[in-house]
Each structure stands twice: as C-alpha cells, then as structure tokens.
Amino acid sequence: MARITADRKTEARRKLLEAAARHFSEAGLERASVDAISMAAGYAKGTVYNYFESKQALFGAVIEEAARRAAERYRSVTPGESTRAHLLALARADLSVLREQESFMKVLIREALSFRPESYATVTEHLGPYAAEVEAALRRGVERGEVRSDRPTAELALLFVGLLGLLYGQHWGSGGVWPDLDDVPELAVTSFLDGAAPRSAS
Predict the structure, then answer these.
(1) What is the model's pLDDT at position 56?
(2) Which of 29, 152, 173, 186 is most buried, most CB within 10 Å of its CB?
C-alpha cells in the first residue's frame, strides 16, 4: 500500500476543516456528524478520526484555523504605535474572518455563551493564535502607560475578545439593527479602553 505523503495529509486536513466549518454552521456542535463531515470532504466515514481525536477536537481545530487567519491578517498591516490602533487592527482582522464564515461564527459564539464548561474551554483554548496577538498588544500598551497594569494582560485579552463576541451576538440577536457589523471594531475598542485605561492613584 502506498504511503500517504505529508502534502496529501495536509490537503486532507484542510478539506476536513472546510467541510467541518460548513457542517457545524448548518447543524451546530451537538447535532454535527463526523461521518457527514468526512463524506462532505470527499472521504470515507470515520476519516475525521485519522486527524482529530473527537468531534470536539475538530470543532476546536476549526476555531483555531479562523483565529490563525485573523492573527495573520493583523500582522500583515501597520496600524501605528498606539494601543488603540493595534486593537482596532485586531478587531478589523477578526471581523474580516467573521464575514467569510459568519454562520460558523454564530455557532462558535453560541457555544462560548452556552455555560457548558467543556465548550467554553474548547473555544478559549483554540482562540489562542488571535488572543496571543491581543495580549501582546496590551502588554505593549502597559509598557507605554496606555493600559492599566493592575490586571493580568491575559485576562484583559480575554475580556476584549469576549466583548467582540458579545457585540457580534447583539448584532445577530437584534436582526442586524444594532450594532452594524462595520461599527463593531470601533465600538469594542472604545468600550474596552474606557475600562482598561490606567487608574490614577486616589
């Protein structure tokens, strides 16, 4: 039997991730079928398990791929020096990925807000590539005195990412009435920095 090359494995993984994003968008996480995902990608039933240990792991991998793309788009621009400029660039990069996979992002945010510890852990863990860029921007902001230093930057990064998710949810929940998706980056950054500004001694 011929060995599967690394390139073919990479291609198979890419196809499975794309099929999974579409299927999770339609079925949600709980009702999603790994066999349906395998077949939608053009492979036999069970092929998913050659690349991912579980449906939850596959869901996490789809999230991580989206987070990686958002991080790459942020790194491809030159936003300026201020923390505000970097956070705006990060939010706009996130929004650009969301626009490409909006149905999947709805599932992602619904799972994050489901109050199920396993789903929340999967979402937060696999947002890592993007959250790390947010944290790095905030760390630089602390060094410049633009961001409060009395809270860990990892917590502040999670807060910023969560605020984006809440605003997306508000957009969808209101039927697109408010906020407009184009307004989310500015609204998220302004709201966040109002709470993240350095605290003066009293």
Answers:
(1) 95
(2) 29
Cα distances (Å, whole numbers) of residue 42 to 25, 39, 152, 157, 186: 18, 5, 45, 38, 41
pTM value?
Answer: 0.92
The CATH code for residues 54-196 is 1.10.357.10
- The pLDDT tens digits of the residues spanning 136-155 come to 999 999 999 999 999 999 99
- The ranges assigned to domains in the chain are 1-52, 54-196
**Has residue 1 got a pLDDT over 50?**
no
Answer yes or no: are the C-beta atoms of 114 and 120 closer than 8 Å: yes
Give dist(CA 89, CA 165) in Å, integer: 16
Torsion of CA 77, 98, 116, 47, to 10 degrees: -100
